[in-house]
Hints:
The protein is of the alpha/beta class. Helix content is about 35%, strand content about 15%. The protein contains five helices and eight strands. It has helices spanning about 20-35, 65-75, 90-100, 125-140, 165-190; strands at about 10-15, 40-45, 75-80, 115-120, 145, 150, 160, 165. The strands form two sheets. Strands 1, 2, 3, 4, 5 and 6 form a six-stranded parallel β-sheet that branches. Strands 7-8 form a two-stranded antiparallel ribbon. Helix 1 (about 20-35) crosses helix 5. The longest helix is centred in the C-terminal third of the chain and has 23 residues, at about 165-190.
Amino acid sequence: METQTTTKTIGLVVGSLRHDSFCKKVANYLAGALKGQFDVTIVDISDLPLYNEDLDHEGSVPSSWARLRHDVAALDAVIFVTPEYNRSMPAVVKNAMDVASRPYGANVWSGKPGAVVSVSPGAIGGFGANHHLRQVATFLNIYMMQQPEAYIGGIGGAVDANGVTDERIQGFLQQIAKAFTDWVNRLADA
């Protein structure tokens, strides 16, 4: 009897809503780097109302929350690509993490391999956002890839209207994609 293998689906959660964001360009580059190994999708978090437990009852759940929960549940793994706002992740990312982890006992993030890439025009590459996001992900039972760490500073000079153009950053993102592929496959074999 032949066993049929299915391609795993990787979700990219982009923490910047700006149309021409650096994070979107990095996420698109990662999507291309991962495409040969996985189905890759961008997870839409742009239209989520702030989490409010009063709305989280059958019949009153916002449709965007239901869509996000469905989309995240269908993923095999997730990569967060985030900017840093005031030494932390943007509220839109934290809200998406909250919405998809509720109601209590229905956390659709749980058990998924994950990674975080932080992006900043500044020199320290979003270190604070990266680590705050990791802290929340740990509680949500996302199995975060530890190495290589991905803090991309000086991003403004590494992209243009067409995406990531800096060869050094491209090479680093290829390393991240390879390490994440290995991480996802290692956990799938465990």
